[in-house]
Amino acid sequence: MANLPFPGEYFKMINILFIAHADAALRSLGLTCAQSDVLMFLSERSGEETTVQDIGQHFRLKHPTVIGFVRRLEDKGFVTTAVSERDRRCRVIRLTDKFAEVERVLQDIRNRMDARAARGFSPEEMAQMQSYLARIYHNISEG
User: For residues 26 and 33, is the Cβ–Cβ distance under 8 A?
Assistant: First the structure.
């Protein structure tokens, strides 16, 4: 029997494919998957004041990297920045209405990729796989 990759290797290969498909779908908007991740983070925090520091901490990125992300997203019209009323040293990042199109594209790519991934699996097998994946995630996230 051939040596099969350990599940972690499959997760890595699957993630690479998902990112490649997302990048292709987002290209028409001038975005990358990584940039859309920042936009989704901002969306999840809607109503909260989100700063460069918050983004850096969440994604474990250095300040100059986050500044570059934010600057490019602002240049493309997806976010605006303003001085924080709470702390004048910080800049607050907010989504623009242009994010709605990003959200639509991301939902479409998720639906298509999930459907492709589920091909050939019965509903019972999908439920079992989700249970296994949740268990793996729990095991790894325990620290």
Answer: yes
Q: What is the pLDDT of residue 61?
A: 95
Give the gyration radius of the chain's Cα atoms: 18
pTM: 0.82
**Token output for 25:** 């779908």
Exposed, middle or buried by CB within 10 Å (0-12, 13-18, 19+), for 49?
middle
Residue 10 has pLDDT above 70, yes or no: yes
Rounded Cα distance between 94 and 106, Å, is 19
* Per-domain residue ranges of the chain: 34-105
pLDDT digit string, tens, across residues 41-52: 999 998 889 999
Tell the CATH topology of 34-105. Arc Repressor Mutant, subunit A (1.10.10)
